[in-house]
Amino acid sequence: MRNSGNELWLELQRNNLTRTDYPENELDLSPWYIKTMQGFAGWIAALFLLAFVGTIIGSLFIYDNQVLLALCGFICCTAAYFIFRNDKTPFLEQLGLAISLCGQFMVAWGIFTVFSISDSSAFLILALFQGALALIMPNFLHRVFSSWFAMVALFWGLNQQGIFGLDSALAAALFTLIWIREKHWYKYRSHLLPISFGLAISLLQFSGHFLFQHEFSHYLFRAEVGFLQQYSPLIGSLILAGTCLYLVFAILSEQNIKLASPSGSIAVIATLMLLGLSFNIAGVSSALLILLVGFFRQRLILMALGILALISFISWYYYSLSETLLVKSIYLLSIGAVCLTIVGTLHYFSKAQPTLDPANSAPVNGKKWISLATILIVLAAININIYQKESLIREGQSVLLELAPVDPRSLMQGDYMRLRYRMSQTIQYAIGDKESVDGFAIVQLDQHSVAQFITLNPDAELSPQQHKLHYRIRDGVLKFATNAFFFQEGSAKIYEKAKYGEFKVSGNGEMLLVGLRDKQYVLLGTNRP
Amino acid sequence: MNSKRQHILHWAEQGYISPDDVDTALSLSRANPDNQQWFQFIKNLFLWLGVISLAAGTLFFFAFNWDEMSNLVKFALMQTSLVVSTLIYTKLKPFTLPSTAIAFLMVMLIGALLALSGQIYQTGADPWQLFAFWALFMTPIAVTNRASTLWLLWVLLINLSCYLYYYDFRGVFGILLHYDNLVGLFLLFNTLLAIAFEVLQQGKTRCLDNRLVVQTCLLASGIAATWLAIWAIFDEAELQWGLPCYLVWILCTYLYYRYRLFDLFIISGCVTSAIVIASSLLIYIFNDALESDAFLIIAIFIIGLSSSAGIWLKKLSKEHAADQPITSDKEHQDA
Predict the structure, then answer these.
(1) What number of other Cβ atoms are within 10 A of residue B127's Cβ?
(2) What is the mean pLDDT of residues A306-330?
(3) Host domain of residue B294
(4) A470 touches chain B (CB under 8 A)
């Protein structure tokens, strides 16, 4: 790194752009994980300092002394400020960080005792306090932490007011603004850079699980619904969309591309299309913002944060309850289609770097044969499996197993129902202490094909009404085929009356769950529509 | 990626460059990405965004378990999309980003197909089997593509499948598989994976383009080792092998990546773990007298250790950078 800095300096010197000799005050280019290690250690040390304060002046933490406690915390932060300002030795910087973090714990503790934890003003005061620390404290790690905490506190404060989606949009807008104006605000770099990293971390956190909390607002939020409560998600989405457009304009102007030129208009149209598609899933836009800014300003760490935010958003999105999986899949599939169409178009217009195999017409190369063969094996295996299962469903013997009462909470899981069979207990009792993972149970069928347990002996002669069933014991629970019945999302109500599980059984005991029946043996639903 | 922009703006902030010259300096040193680089980046961005959205969209679609669509239609749709993506894959130049992205899509579709078959025919195959088969089927594709994206997914699937296997069978082998044994297995398993990848990477056949997979495996096993050691310190009767196991692991890892193959990320990880363990030992020693003075001593101890570790790591980082021949620009042209 030092080399590249040196070389760059010489190059600038040759062009008379420098004022002095090679500066002694070097840029700190130490990798992120060293800072992470120090931040992590600072946190642990702060906890021990807190324990120290707690044991020497325990009376501070008593209920009536909350103002004094917050005041002591404030004094700690002030002390840390003077340590940071006067000395740049690593030990004292680390000490200052730990003292300040300890002080912040005390301030937060005090504030939450004065107000109650359910009071949004406590969070808002804390957010203000942290925001001020982020601006004042002359220490990189401290500014990162404080701006991150400020955003999280603001988030919870607004959340308790029933205002959702606004905080993350503000964080994204501020983050983008700082990086777009990076060159113009060079005098405040040491203030703004760490703050922007803190904002990026908070965005990563929000994209994973916070962004769409407004769907819970109907359950949690009881107070009167005002303008902000009603429109904050929309305003948030609009702020995000505006920020994305602003970033695209900034990139175009720095690359000297006019809006009216073909590339300029394509960029704006593509952005608008993507914004339209992702309007309801704002997490995608904020992840993309971090990624774009990362490339724009050549920061690998931001790009990595953007990718992480994208992945955590998608895994969170799967579980969000705002829309059905069908609607979500349509959103995603259309975004995918638009993106790949754009890639295709870009490829078509640039013949510069061919990604298609030059030996296109030539036979597929060796490496690709391996992949091709793998896919063929997968397809063959799947289709043989389909054939076997379909034959079993057609030709197998129907067997009904009585269900044990189902835990009603499991029904709430949405897309599948957990099954337990009455017979399981009898069989497990018969197995006793023997360590067994797999085995066969012999059952007798009545006129409705309902099975009754007879014996465990696999060699017993079977009468025409007797069948053998393959069971498995997993995690201490006995299972026939499966203990989960899958159904379309949202149709849980129908299956509440289920009394029997219907299986198809082959001669060798292989079982397949095909449907559920009620107590009059009426079919409630199958896996085969 | 280069750090020229950071340098120039830093010098401007410090007053070594006049504010009026910043623009000239930035364009002269080509600190900003040029149009060609932007074009490439946008293309790759949309490519991956498209592939990830398509893969996730397909998974979501089948997870919805739509009643209106018959099973055979679902299978036909799924298999067709797999065949189409395979056909596209065979047309692409190997070891390029598009080829890797489509291979990733293929692998995701294989997983979706396996999950779909498990969902439609409820034979109740154990959950670990799904992930094991998925990992098995993707292995040839990962091997022939040299891409860390695919290998990371592979490592994740293998670990998941092992965890689920343990979860199903923990009752059966009784005492053998306690929770701490699981962490031990996790440690052993990921260390073996890391060694395997390291051997492959240094062998003649290049199977990977960067060190991300080795670092991930070592990070996972490092967390497991640290966990075991903390456990052993505070509960020594239960877990006698925890500390020796940790010591051997951390020493070997540290020595190898310090002297044989320099990797600052892994060294930093070792240092962080060592700080945690040293503080735990100190807490254990103070166990009977854990009062105010002890807390202060521990806090100062941690601050001292971490700040000196920071100085040392930064020094290592600079030394290593100075030893390295300047290849960054050349690599850029290759990429």
Answers:
(1) 18
(2) 82
(3) 178-335
(4) no
